[in-house]
């Protein structure tokens, strides 16, 4: 549960002590004296014995899914954050300069990166323009979609055959349908499924969660094949604790599964050490760049789960992570883009740069 605890700590730092307290205990529009705060905290921990874990979950749900503007989001905070994580568009020339003599490999998250975040996860469609931009990028550079979604689901959104797809947080990796010299798998293009033994368990948990969350309005459970997502974007914040309790009651029966969080989503995954960062490393190896300096991986994503990939790039001292966010966030990414429309612009510029500056012809 280290992640959740860390999130709660970050939350306190960024949003103040209000974030530690259940909404019902907060007097409206009152500024707290130190004595008030001490008393409220004491009340929380005394009256909610046994519920501490759930409170930590709910705090973490708030931290990863801000529903209101944070009081500390001043213009100064934003300015200093953007200095540390400048726009990948304004730094485009520098990024391209770093790629000199290297092969650019593109890694793209899907939700919130290529598609807008929408209320119904089944309707997170990408635009035709974005699809064209991704298709063009994939003509010039090896390109992978790395997502928490089920691979088949994300393929039904992207609909491009020339890409690698790493679904279920990289636990289900498939190569391009045509091509290629890199393809190692012979099972319909599948390259790697490190958690295949978990399939029956995940299916069981999916069914249990559908049943347990039926009474919570707006909750949506999605079977992502190697992980299960519980979306709470449409759940009233008052019901978040009830939802967390139901998820915990299921998770408690499966010690081989763990909880992680994304934007307005709780995710249940196998405890194996595998994430988007490992998937990135696996794909680089599959492409023949395991120990190579001749590669410049660029990973674009908007979610906390993308941080694993940003961290891998930072630790390798190779390539760049680009965080899609309008708000300052703790991140291991080097650069930022504000929203999917800027991602599209970045992809287009990449293709134009390859076409015109380098005189590159599509392979
Ligand atoms: Mg995302």
From TrEMBL:
Pfam families: Trehalose_PPase (PF02358). Its EC number is 3.1.3.12. Keywords: Hydrolase, Stress response. InterPro entries: HAD-like_sf, HAD-SF_hydro_IIB, HAD_sf, OTSB-like, Trehalose_PPase. Removes the phosphate from trehalose 6-phosphate to produce free trehalose. Trehalose accumulation in plant may improve abiotic stress tolerance. Belongs to the trehalose phosphatase family. The keyword Zinc does not apply. Pathway: Glycan biosynthesis; trehalose biosynthesis. Its cofactor is a divalent metal cation. GO terms for molecular function: trehalose-phosphatase activity. It catalyses: alpha,alpha-trehalose 6-phosphate + H2O = alpha,alpha-trehalose + phosphate. GO terms for biological process: trehalose biosynthetic process. This is Trehalose 6-phosphate phosphatase. It is an enzyme of class 3 (hydrolase).
């Amino acid at each position: 549960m280290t992640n959740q605890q860390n999130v709660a700590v970050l939350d306190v730092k960024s949003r103040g002590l209000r974030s530690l307290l259940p909404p019902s205990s907060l007097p409206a529009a009152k500024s707290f004296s130190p004595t008030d705060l001490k008393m409220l905290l004491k009340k929380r921990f005394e009256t909610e014995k046994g519920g501490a874990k759930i409170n930590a979950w709910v705090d973490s749900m708030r931290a990863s899914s801000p529903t209101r503007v944070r009081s500390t989001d001043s213009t100064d905070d934003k300015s200093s954050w953007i200095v540390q994580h400048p726009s990948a568009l304004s730094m485009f020339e520098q990024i391209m300069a770093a790629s000199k003599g290297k092969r650019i490999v593109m890694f793209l998250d899907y939700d919130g990166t290529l598609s807008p975040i929408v209320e119904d996860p089944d309707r997170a469609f990408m635009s035709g323009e974005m699809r064209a931009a991704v298709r063009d990028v994939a003509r010039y550079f090896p390109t992978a979609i790395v997502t928490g979604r089920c691979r088949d689901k994300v393929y039904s959104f992207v609909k491009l055959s020339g890409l690698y797809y790493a679904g279920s947080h990289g636990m289900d990796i498939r190569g391009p349908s045509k091509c290629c010299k890199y393809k190692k798998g012979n099972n319909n293009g599948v390259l790697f499924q490190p958690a295949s033994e978990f399939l029956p368990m995940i299916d069981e948990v999916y069914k249990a969660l559908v049943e347990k969350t039926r009474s919570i309005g707006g909750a949506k459970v999605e079977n992502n094949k190697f992980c299960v997502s519980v979306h709470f974007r449409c759940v009233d914040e008052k019901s978040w604790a009830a939802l967390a309790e139901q998820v915990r009651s299921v998770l408690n029966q499966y010690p081989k599964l763990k909880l992680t969080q994304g934007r307005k989503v709780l995710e249940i995954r196998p405890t194996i050490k595998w994430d988007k960062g490992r998937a990135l490393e696996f794909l680089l190896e599959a492409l023949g760049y395991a120990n190579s300096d001749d590669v410049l991986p660029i990973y674009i994503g908007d979610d906390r789960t993308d941080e694993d990939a940003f961290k891998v790039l930072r630790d390798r001292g190779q390539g760049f992570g680009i965080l899609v966010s309008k708000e300052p966030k703790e991140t291991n990414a080097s650069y930022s883009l504000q929203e999917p429309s800027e991602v599209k612009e970045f992809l287009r510029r990449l293709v134009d740069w390859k076409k015109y500056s380098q005189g590159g012809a599509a392979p």
